[in-house]
Input
Amino acid sequence: MPEGDNIQPDGNLLYERLLQQNERLEAQNARMMEMLERFNLQDGSSRTSNGPEFIIETLASNIREFVYDPDNGLVFDRWYRKYEDLFLKDGAKLDDAAKVRLLLRSLNVAVHDKYVNFVLPKHPRDIEFKETVKKLTELFSVQASLFSKRYQCFQLSKSESDDFVTYAGIVNKHCEDFELKKLTADQFKSLLFICGLRSSRDADIRTRLLSMLEVNA
Output
């Protein structure tokens, strides 16, 4: 063949090159599809009905935000009793850390900030769920001494607006707060003595005795 003329490639060689190129493209596509499948599985795991984030979102939609207002009876232990089964039973598939996240997101901003500052230098996520509940109960409860609760129990009377079922519930709650098993004979005598000072003439001594016993409670 004269020099300078175009050399036509061998047909078999061209076919082999095309075949090799096609195999490389197929291998690349297979690897890409595998990567996409892995990504979709990982990305979608938290959105499935069994994923923790899905469970958290579902449960959170059924929880009313906790606002601390002790003057109106809005304290943490009462709020938590209402949702306890939701955390422990409906959220049984959640791990401890996820339950903590769900609980903390259910607090309003003021309560959340106060709790975060209270547990410093720890981070809230480093505290177990059970301990978190305990700390929140202590921090956002009615700030009254045991003696004060016992004294209020002796002052209890049925309101005209309460039916007997409501009144029975109030009595039961006050009796639980009373912690009768821990009451000593001297404490009982002191309570009985002060509760007997009902006259307006005894108001001053009653107030002073209450203050003194509050300090020593």
